[in-house]
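chain below, 238 aa
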Amino acid sequence: MKTILHKAADRGHANHGWLQANHSFSFANYFDKDKMQFGALRVMNDDSIAPKMGFGTHPHDNMEIITIPLSGVLKHRDNMGQDWQPVKTGEVQVMSAGTGVQHSEVNGSEESPLNLFQIWIIPNERNVAPRYGQKAFSPEERKNKLQTLVTSVANHHEGSLKIHQDAVLSRIDLDKGISFDYQLRSPNHGVYIMTIQGALQIEDYFLQTRDALGVSETDKFTIKASEDAEVLFIEVPM
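prediction:
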């Protein structure tokens, strides 16, 4: 099994006042030649956005973008027909930028900060027609069991959002002391494990809140919650 450890404190950080951004991989003004991507996973940003603030209209193309609000509410609009659509905690948003989209995203609250993960995955097909998806996922359905959030458009899994890549995003909330065996889709895949909060153990690695571990060249591995833990899996082709 091949592994790469990314401790929370070692992430790139940008303080823009209204935006506190943590970058697991090289992004914007943060560059680390050893942290360019993990397989098809290009960006893993952990952002905190001040009330009423956000990103004005800007373009994207040929990227699969997944946004997961962890606290607060995001408001999104784009040139595909969404006009200030709220994306709440517990929901997941996907956007296939394809041939090109313009969008804006802001904190939808005037009082509370917004914390979110934004994930960019390199697509397996370029210049597709842009598309948008959004769905709420119940926390009860990931209690000590895997909940699938996002799969490929070619995958017939029902209930998941779709992107143009043979990737799987999933979550699990583990009670302290519970173990879970994660099975990878193929030998050509790896999985980036982000500890949203809590503490867990994978092999000889002990992960705490916002620590991450990339795992590849194995068919499965076991995680054990050292305390109650919320975990995000991003499985991608390597």
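The first strand starts at residue 2 and ends at 6. The chain has a mean pLDDT of 96.
thats it, cya
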